[in-house]
Write a structure and sequence with these properties.
molybdenum cofactor biosynthesis (chains A, B, C, D, E, F); Alpha-Beta Plaits; alpha+beta; 5 strands; homohexamer; 159 residues; elongated; cyclic pyranopterin monophosphate synthase activity (chains A, B, C, D, E, F)
Chain lengths: 159, 159, 159, 159, 159, 159
C-alpha cells in the first residue's frame, strides 16, 4: 500500500487532481467535548443570558473549515459550497456533541474540511469554558459520512 | 460562576489582560490518533523511506500553534517563544500519541496554543493516512500541564 | 421573512450553494473618507512626490477583497476574476470617493468582496493620513450595483 | 506637514517605533449600519430565536481587529490586550450602532484595530441582512477616543 | 507595450480574467541556495538522523504556493491542483537546487505559484541552516516552463 | 555542529527563546531582479504615469515581512518595529536592486523578515512585468547586515 501524499521517492507532495472530474462531494464529521455536568450547565444556560458558548463555537468551526488548506500542509484549496455545524448537549456524556456537514463541487473530497470544522469548534468550546474546568477532554473525532468522488460512499460504523 | 469570555451582559469579548504582568508561561497538551496496526506500520515505516507522516504532522502542529489567535475567536495573539511536538507510535493503542509543549513570556497562558498544535498535527496525520484507513479516530485531547500566571500550576490526573 | 444565513433552528450556517449554477457576477460598491481640505491636499499632492496615499489604499483594497471569506464569517470563498478600485478626490466633500468593481464566475455574488475592498481601502486612507487629522470620517459605504445570479440586477438609487 | 508613513523620498515604509516606549494604549471607534425599520426588527428579533445577527457581527469584529496588521499595509503588528464591541439598535437611525474598544501595551496606538473591528462587524451585519435589504448603508465610522502614547489623549467632538 | 496589471490611467488593478476559458495550466520554476560544502553536508546528512532540512523546506514551499494570492498583490486566487518540489544537493554549486511544479485548471497561469513555492522553500533552507552559515545566497530563481492558456508554451533557455 | 531548529533526536522544533533577553535587533537583506533594458525602462517609466511597479513591490515586501512567521515553519512570531524597502534601478544589471531593513525589540533576530521582504517584493516585480518578459531572474538574495542579540554583528563581505 502506498500513500498518495508521497511520490515514488517518498517525498511529500500535493497530489495532482487535475485529471479528476468536478463532482458534488459531501462529508460529515463528528466529535465531542467531555466536561462535568456543572460545566455543561454553564455552556447551555449560557445560550440564554450569560453568553453564547455554542454559537461562538459554531462560527469558529465554520470559519475554521475555510482555513483547512492553510492548516493541513497537503490539502488542496477548495471552493466550499456549504458548512453547517450542529452542537448539542448530551447529559449522558456529559458534554457537547459536534457534527459538521461540508459540501463542495470540486476535484477532491471535503473530509478534512469537516474534521477541521469539528476540531476548531471543539477547541473554541474548551477555550470558552476553561475558566470553569481545565480538565475537559476532546475526543471521538472521526469521519461519519463521505459521498462523491471516485472512491464513492463511506459511512462509519455506529460508534 | 461566570465565564471570563463574556461581559456582564453576556456578550462575548476578548478579555482585558493589560493589567496582568508578563510572566513565563508553559503549557503541555496531549492527544492521540487511533488506527489499525497495519496503518500504524505505514505511518512508522514511512519515516524511513516511503514518506514522513510524523515529520509532516509535527511541522503542521508547530505552524498551527502560531495560528491559534486566528482560529479561536477570543484568544489573544501571543509572541510564542517555543513549540515542540512529540509524536510517538503506541502499539497498544494502536496509533500515534501526540504531546505538544508551548512556552511564552506574556500576559495570558498558552493552553490553547498547545491544544491547537496537537489538534492540527492529529488532523494532518488523518489526512496523510486516510487513503489507507478512513475510520481512524482522534481523541484524548486534553491539557496535561500548565505553569505560570495568576491561576498557577495545573497538572492533569493520570488518564 | 427569514434570513438565509440561519437554518430553521436559527443557527448560523454557510448556506448551501452547491445547487446554484456558475454564472458571471458583478458587484460595484462605493464609499468615501471625509477630511479637511488641507488633509485632502496632502493626500493628493502626495501622489506626485511626497508618497502615494491613493496608490497604497488601492492596493490594500484589492488585497482586502481577496480576504473577504477570511473576515466575514458566513461568506463563501470565491475565485475572484477581477478587482478594480477607483479613488478620486472630491473637493465638495471634501475628501476621497472610493468605488470598487469585482467580478467572478461562481455560485454566489461578490457584493461582500466589493464592500470589503472599499472598507479596507478607506481604513488604509485613514491610517496614512491620521498623523495629519484624527477626525476623518468613513461613510457612504453601500452597494451601488449587482448583476448576475438568480436574484438578478440591483442598482442603488442615486444618493 | 509630512506624513509619517512616507520617508524623505516619499516612499511608503513601516515607520520605526523601536525607540518608543511601551505604554498602555486605548482606542474607541464607532460607526453604524442604517437600514429600514423592518430590517432592524429582523436583526434584533433574531437574537431571540431566528439567529443571532448581532452576536455573529460582534465575533467577526473581534476577530477582524486581530487581522488589522494583515489588512492595513503599514500597520505594525501589536499584541492586543482587549477587544470589546457594543452593538445596539437605534430606532431613530433606524439601524445598529457599533462601538469598539481596544487596548494594548505597546509602542504604537490601536486606533486602526478599533476602526477595523467596527468596519468588519458592520460588513458582517450587511452580509447577514442583505437577503432582506440590499440598500443598507455603512457610515459614521470614526475614532471616538484615543489614550496613551506621545501624542496623548484625543476625544472626538460630539457628532 | 503596456502592462496588464495597470489600467489605462496607470492604476494597479487585478486584471479581468472572467472572459478567459478554464484550461489546464502548468508551470515549473527553479532556483538554488548556495552554501559552503560543509553546510551542504549538514543539510544532507540531516536527512538521515540530525533533522530533515530538505523535507521541512519542501513542505514550506508547498504551503507557500497556496499563499501566493495572499502575498502577491495582483495575483488571482486559484484552485491549485498539484504542487511538487524537488530539492537536490549539487556539490558543484555547492548547495541545494530547487524545482517546483504547479498545475491548475483555471483562468490564469500558475507561474507565480511555482516561483513562490521555490522562494519560500529557499527561505526555509536559509532559516534552518543560518546557525551554521549566515553568508548563504539564494539565486537563479526563474520560470523554467509554462504550458496552457492563450499565450501558450514557454520554455526557458538552458541556464 | 548541530542545527538549533532540531532537537537532540533530530526532530524539528521552534527553539525555546524564552530565556533570551529582549534587545534591539536589526537586519538588512538584499537581492535583485535581472531583466532586459527595455523591461527596466517599462518598470521605471511606470512610476511616472503608466503604473507604479516599484511602489507596488515595496508595499508587497513590507506586508510580506509581516507574514514571515506564517510562511517559514520554525520562525518565531515577532513584533516588527520597522520595515523599509529600497528598490532602485541599476542599468548595469540591468534590473532592479532591492534592499530591506527590518528592526524589532525582541528575543530573536529579524534576518528572515528582511529576506522575506526582499523575496516577496522581487516576486511582485516579476508578476507585474511578466507580460513583458518571462525570462527575468531573481537572485543575489542574501543577508547584508545583522545587529543585536547574543551572536552579535554580522556584515556580509562586498559581493
Amino acid at each position: 500500500m502506498s500513500l498518495s501524499h508521497f511520490d515514488a521517492a517518498g517525498h511529500a507532495h500535493m497530489v495532482d487532481v487535475s485529471e479528476k472530474t468536478e463532482t458534488a462531494r459531501l462529508a460529515v464529521a463528528e466529535g465531542w467535548v467531555k466536561m462535568t455536568a456543572q460545566t455543561l450547565d454553564l455552556a447551555t444556560e449560557g445560550r440564554a443570558d450569560k453568553g453564547d458558548v455554542i454559537g461562538t463555537a459554531r462560527l469558529a468551526g465554520i470559519m475554521g473549515a475555510k482555513r483547512t488548506a492553510d492548516l493541513i500542509p497537503l490539502c488542496h484549496p477548495l471552493p466550499i459550497a456549504k458548512v453547517a455545524l450542529d452542537i448539542t448537549p448530551d447529559a449522558s456524556l456529559p458534554g457537547l456533541r459536534l457534527r459538521a456537514t461540508v459540501k463542495t463541487t470540486g476535484r477532491t473530497g471535503v473530509e478534512m474540511e469537516a474534521l477541521t470544522a469539528v476540531s476548531t469548534a471543539a477547541l473554541t468550546i474548551y477555550d470558552m469554558l476553561k475558566a470553569a474546568e481545565k480538565g475537559m477532554e476532546i475526543g471521538g473525532i472521526r469521519l461519519a459520512l463521505k459521498e462523491g468522488g471516485k472512491s464513492g460512499r463511506y459511512e462509519a460504523p455506529a460508534p
